[in-house]
Amino acid sequence: AQSVTQLGSHVSVSEGALVLLRCNYSSSVPPYLFWYVQYPNQGLQLLLKYTSAATLVKGINGFEAEFKKSETSFHLTKPSAHMSDAAEYFCAVREAQGGKLIFGQGTELSVKP
Amino acid sequence: NAGVTQTPKFRILKIGQSMTLQCAQDMNHNYMYWYRQDPGMGLKLIYYSVGAGITDKGEVPNGYNVSRSTTEDFPLRLELAAPSQTSVYFCASISTTNEQFFGPGTRLTVL
């Protein structure tokens, strides 16, 4: 069965600093991996996805993530944080041959001026 | 396309009451999902469906039921509402190219 672990329920960075949000997965078959962002009292917005093409995936708002099979990781990064990046971020995994889409517990990103 | 629609947006139930949360999509997607999100928590998968007539349990199915008689509709049924079911419920669908669509959510309170 697949699962997702997000390391750190809360990450705080200064404006302009690097953003790194960690996600590790387990899956018995090649996975599809996703990052979502959720602003307060809103639904989820897809940031980016990995579906077995290029291992470095670029998403919206300057975010990118790298699929590392050897480390079973899919960490989300952004070179320079903006105040508008403050939100909750969720990593999710879906087995390529299956239907279940499982989410991590989320990481709240705070950006300090 | 209307995308994924959910009704109602808000609902207050008394303990023991029943209700159905409606979810519909007009994109002909086979994969559909129901999640609940508790405050400060991630999304937990309740049930999912890979096509009409096929449903399967997710991570937290107890207290819920689903049906998938058509490709478009995927209703979630609460038979005996309990305070522990107070949550925000999201329905979602996924296309064959992994484009994902979430409904706006239903905020349910059980008192």
Tell me what you see in this structure:
The complex is a heterodimer of chains A (113) and B (111). Chain A is an all-beta fold. Chain A has no helices and eleven strands. Chain A has strands at 3-7, 10-14, 19-26, 31-38, 44-50, 56-58, 64-68, 73-78, 87-95, 101-103, 107-112. In chain A, the strands form two sheets. In chain A, strands 2, 4, 5, 9, 10 and 11 form a six-stranded mixed sheet that branches. In chain A, strands 1-3-8-7-6 form a five-stranded antiparallel sheet, with no helix packed on it. In chain A, β9 and β10 form a beta hairpin. Chain A starts with a strand and ends with a strand. Chain B is mostly beta strands and 111 residues long. Chain B has no helices and eleven strands. In chain B, the strands form two sheets. In chain B, strands 2, 4, 5, 6, 9, 10 and 11 form a seven-stranded mixed sheet that branches. In chain B, strands 1-3-8-7 form a four-stranded antiparallel sheet, with no helix packed on it. In chain B, β9 (87-94) and β10 (100-102) form a beta hairpin. Chain B is globular, with a radius of gyration of 13 Å. Classes of the chains: A mainly beta (113), B mainly beta (111). Chains A and B meet through β5 and β10 of A and β4, β5 and β9 of B.
